[in-house]
Each structure stands twice: as structure tokens, then as C-alpha cells.
Amino acid sequence: MTAAANTSGAPKRVLILHGWTNRRQEGNWHRILVSALRHQGHQVLYPQFPSTDNPTLEDWQDLLLAELDLLHEAGPGETVVIGHSLGCVNFIHAAVEGKIAKPIDRLLFVAPADPKLLGEIRGLKVSLNKAATKDALNSVVGELTIIGSDADAWTPDGIQETFGSPLGVEAIVIEGAGHFKGDEGWGKWQGLLDWVNDPSADIKVR
Fold first, then answer.
1. pLDDT tens across 5-27, in order?
2. Of 19, 185, 184, 47, the residue nearest 117 (C-alpha)
3. Could you give phi then psi for residue 107, rounded to 5 degrees?
């Protein structure tokens, strides 16, 4: 990924939320993006959530809220949150429960996992088909973007049907992208770096 100069004015404040079993391995798009954004001068938070093989909702919610507080304390600039898989659903849960005190400017869901497949995480309360879920997100997010694949086992009913339509967003679909994991070839992702700097950029560019 080419860490081109930040040409969009003030540095962004960026929080990246990994998913289930992720250990922030070298070579995946999360870490490559974090490094590139930091070299551009952005404030970037990339926490390791606890017990990633056996997530506990309370612990993941607590860390999310703490990191959101830090995001807003990081100085001036647009706030951008990027979630992957369970990281997306963890954010939705916090929004639905009314836990997010300060709104963020932009939110990106990358390959969010269907909450119906996350039954092992006790206490998780996310019903995407309730209007209250969409309203809760809209109340704390300025702009929501969703990107997924046509071949993701974590959204067997399709990204648009599962997330896009219920949340009022036209999802971006990349054919054959799987679950956007490092071992599926998702390392360098130029379009995502460009998108953080400019929301009009083509996020699909590799």
C-alpha cells in the first residue's frame, strides 16, 4: 500500500475494530492500513480486543467505549471508525443500547458478520430488521458505508439483504472477496487508504 501524502487537510482520527479470532497479524489489511495512515500523520487507534477466540460481550463493549472516548480526545479532525466482521456488530450493539455518547463522522463496515451466526456471544442484542437499529446508528454516525462480498460465509443471505437494505445503505460488493481476511489475499488495499482521506475515492481499488 502506497502511503501517499494526506491532501485532505487536518489529520483524521481513526479507530479500527478487528473481528473474532483476529490477533492483528502482520500482512493483513488492518495493520498495513494502520501503518500507512500513521505515516500520513493521522491519529490511529487499533486495539486488541480481549479473549479474541472466546469473546465476551461485556469486555468487548467496555473496550469499544473506552477507545471511542480516546478517539474524541485525539485532537481536531474528522472521526472515522472502520469495523471488520464482529467488530461491526459490536459497534451496532453499543449504538442500539444507547452507549455511544458522542457521534462519529464516518463509519465503515467491512464484511460485517450476520448477527444470527454469532449466537455463541451471550447477551448480543442486534436485530437488523428493527427500525430502531437503523435509527440508533443514524443518531451516532454521520455517514455509513458497507462493503462486502458475494462469497462470504458470514453473510449467507447476501450483504445487501442482511445489512444494506435494513440499514438504508447501498452496499458495495466485491466479487469473490470472501470475508476480507489476510489469508484470503487481503493485504494491501489502496482504495481503503484513499477512502479514509477522501470519502469520494473508489474504495474497491486494490
1. 444 568 999 999 998 877 667 77
2. 19
3. -130, 130
With a CB cutoff of 8 Å and minimum separation 6, the contacts of 150 are: 158, 159, 173, 174, 175, 176, 177
* The model's pTM: 0.92
Q: Is the Cα torsion angle 4, 7, 11, 17 positive or negative in sign?
A: negative
Rounded CA-CA distance 54/64 in Å is 16
Among residues 181, 169, 29, which one has the least CA distance to residue 106? 169
Rounded to an integer, what distance in angstroms lies between the CA atom of residue 156 and that of residue 18?
20
Show Cβ contacts of residue 120 under 8 Å, excluding neighbours closer than 6 positions. Answer: none
Amino acid identity, residue 152? D
H/E run at residue 143:
strand 141-149
145: alpha, beta or left, given left = phi > 0 and alpha = psi -120 to 50?
Answer: beta
Type of residue found at 29: W
